[in-house]
Automatic annotation (TrEMBL):
Catalysed reactions listed for this entry: [protein]-peptidylproline (omega=180) = [protein]-peptidylproline (omega=0)
Descriptive protein name: Peptidyl-prolyl cis-trans isomerase
Annotated source species: Acanthoscelides obtectus
Residue intervals passing through the bilayer: 206-227
Enzyme class of the recorded protein, top EC level: isomerase
Cleaved signal peptide residues: 1-21
Keyword list, A-Z: Isomerase, Membrane, Rotamase, Signal, Transmembrane, Transmembrane helix
Gene3D superfamilies to which the protein is assigned, alphabetical: Cyclophilin-like
EC number per UniProt: 5.2.1.8
């Protein structure tokens, strides 16, 4: 009964958050094909908010499709992951999180903070202080309200949220650097008419977490079921050893 109440509250929370979400125009779509080690992991499709932050979107799109001095996002790594927070990539210079470069120079200014980082799956600029945006970005895996006045949100994940969450759960070192080789191997543009999308996307987050975690979840339930069976058999064994069976207990009470 308690579980049902909690589940009901969770559903209401998701529906409420989705209904209250502000809509923004998706002006451009860019996709990343991602490999981990030697295997294909999947495709992430980003919708870019070119109406709210046109300068930031232009920078990301130009680097993705044409590059700076021949360097695009192809070959860059998702180098950092913090579980239940974000994954980070986009360092076209050093591929380790220390490089900054933009189509406007080394840095460019914060455009605005109109769109809030209040959901999973948002595309956000990396900086190391005010007005120090470059080529790096991160993808939120939860709401991060404490950066709403420091980091520019300029897009969202339209497809491939499960890929993001898989990357998020890879093992990292003490500095949150991913221990596996997670590389962008292909980049392209999806053409089409602009359309509006809510910045929040709870159903994407919910289903992505389910997809990403189905195996450990299933394995946990299997282990629990096994131990429950063992405990029942032990109880039965003890009853037999003591010479008291459930039917005998009923007879005694009668």
């Amino acid at each position: 009964m308690m579980f049902a109440k909690k589940a009901f509250v969770l559903v209401l929370f998701f529906l409420h958050g989705y209904g209250c979400s502000q809509e923004y125009k998706i002006t451009d779509q860019i996709y990343f094909d991602v490999h981990v080690d030697d295997g294909y992991l999947g495709r992430i499709v980003f919708g870019l908010f070119g109406e709210e932050v046109p300068k930031t979107v232009k920078n990301f799109k130009e680097i993705a499709l044409n590059g700076i001095d021949g360097k695009t996002y192809v070959g860059t790594k998702f180098h950092t992951a913090i579980e239940r927070l974000l994954i980070q990539g986009g360092d076209i210079l050093y591929n380790n999180g220390t490089g900054f470069s933009s189509i406007y120079g080394k840095y460019f200014d914060d455009e605005n903070f109109t769109i809030k980082p209040d959901s999973s799956g948002l595309l956000v600029m990396v900086n190391h202080g005010p007005n120090t945006n470059g080529c790096q970005f991160f993808i939120t895996t939860m709401a991060i309200p404490w950066i709403e006045d420091t980091n520019v949100v300029f897009g969202k994940v339209l497809k491939g949220a499960e890929v993001v969450h898989r990357i998020e759960h890879y093992k990292t070192d003490v500095n949150d650097k991913i221990l596996r080789n997670v590389v962008v191997t292909g980049v392209g543009e999806i053409t089409g008419a602009p359309f509006y999308e809510p910045s929040k996307n709870y159903e994407l987050t919910l289903w992505a977490w389910i997809k990403a975690g189905w195996f450990p979840l299933a394995w946990s339930f299997t282990i629990l079921a096994f131990f429950q069976m063992v405990i029942k058999r032990l109880d039965r064994y003890i009853e037999i050893k003591e010479g008291v069976l459930p039917t005998q207990e009923k007879d005694k009470k009668a």
